Amino acid sequence: MFKQKPLWRKPALFAGIIIGAVAFSCQQNTESPITGDSIEFVKFQSGDIIPGKYIVTLMPTGINFRKDLSYDAVQATMRKTGSELLSKYRIDQENLGFVYGSSIEGFAVSLTEEQYQAISKDPSIKAIEADRVIALGPPPGKGPGSGGGGSTASQQIPYGIERVHGGATYTGSKKAYIIDSGIDSSHEDLNVSTSLGFNAFTKGKDASLDSDGNGHGTHVAGTVGAKDNSVGVIGVAAGVTVIPVKVLDSRGSGSYSGVIAGVDFVKANATSGDVANMSLGGPISDALDAAVVSLAASGVKVALAAGNESDNANNHSPARANHANIYTISAIDSSDKFASFSNYGNPPIDFAAPGVGILSTVPGGYASYSGTSMASPHVCGLLIWGNPGNGGNAIGDPDGNPDQIAIR
């Protein structure tokens, strides 16, 4: 079902880095646990297995074919199913975390080793994998820049938007789901719909969908759809509605189980033709890949960052996930040169896009970031308009098979 790919050289997760006008706060925040859990992510490194936390995939129950069920109804049904399975093994229902029924069928759960050994033999279970921390981090050898928040004196068209032939104003009904750290809903350059969004966090400073405590998701959203409004920057599909799906907290940290919950929400609520961007990733997860493939199979086009490890993208999830509606994106610079940090490999990579020194929106202003996290939303914006075209080849692709540069 999936493109084959190897594990990362080290369990680092990928995203963009700050190289421009703003530096984000990364203070420890222990007040934003994943729903149903009590995880303090600061205790873990990116890619670490979270002790005692698991993602259970169930054998098909047929719930996905019951089109009459709303997202809330599916959630209730799967929570009942999960609770009944746990009670069968005398496991407390409070151990049950996120539940999934719109993409994969299953749930997140806390288990002792003894409970894991017992429940894993149940015939209703297809697979169990360890939950992991997922966190944003810089490409190898890079680090965050410094500086204060900034605004642009007048509207600019970033070089990446020009390179992919974006910037036209979108007036249709398609929506862009940004599966990330949230989006600053007050930003004057973005058309944000929080009422359609999802938040994996239920308390602390990350519980509000109106804010983005990290800034990464707001930057991604601006590349997709910043308005043509005489200020700031212009996105690839200017003015498109961007929807926050907050699965990363203010430190840029979350869990695989929370990311799957976000994907599950989008699968249940998006319309065929909508798009989604996932500028995040980590070690291989069959459950995460399966959820993303299910989302793509519903008609939602998904842009995925290839990763920043200078590694084969086949070693990472969800970058390795394969479907006709999935586009895995590597990064180039303003001279079309393949970025030194970018992951590579065909498959899974479908296109390259600008990902070095990308100016976009951040809470309170604008900043330049680098990473495949910045390349992916260029293609996400293109997918609003249709399938990307061929704008030439990336220069110096290390796999010897140059990635096509995506354009409208």
From TrEMBL:
SUPFAM superfamilies given for it? Protease propeptides/inhibitors, Subtilisin-like
Entry superkingdom: Bacteria
Which InterPro entries does the record match to this protein?
Answer: PCSK9_ProteinaseK-like, Peptidase_S8/S53_dom, Peptidase_S8/S53_dom_sf, Peptidase_S8_Asp-AS, Peptidase_S8_His-AS, Peptidase_S8_Ser-AS, Peptidase_S8_subtilisin-like, Peptidase_S8_subtilisin-rel
**PROSITE patterns recorded:** PROKAR_LIPOPROTEIN, SUBTILASE, SUBTILASE_ASP, SUBTILASE_HIS, SUBTILASE_SER
Q: Where is the Inhibitor I9 domain?
A: 53-134
Q: Name one GO biological process term.
A: proteolysis
A GO cellular component annotated for this chain's UniProt record is: extracellular space
Where in the numbering of this chain does the Peptidase S8/S53 domain appear? 178-382
Q: Where is the active site?
A: 180 (charge relay system), 216 (charge relay system), 373 (charge relay system)
Chain segments carrying region Disordered:
136-155
Q: Give the record's keywords alphabetically.
A: Hydrolase, Protease, Serine protease
Q: Which GO terms describe its molecular function?
A: serine-type endopeptidase activity
What Gene3D superfamilies has UniProt attached to this entry? Peptidase S8 propeptide/proteinase inhibitor I9, Peptidase S8/S53 domain
Family, per the entry? Answer: Belongs to the peptidase S8 family.
Q: What is this protein called?
A: Peptidase inhibitor I9
**Where does this protein come from, organism-wise?**
Algoriphagus ratkowskyi
Q: What is the lineage of its organism?
A: Bacteria, Pseudomonadati, Bacteroidota, Cytophagia, Cytophagales
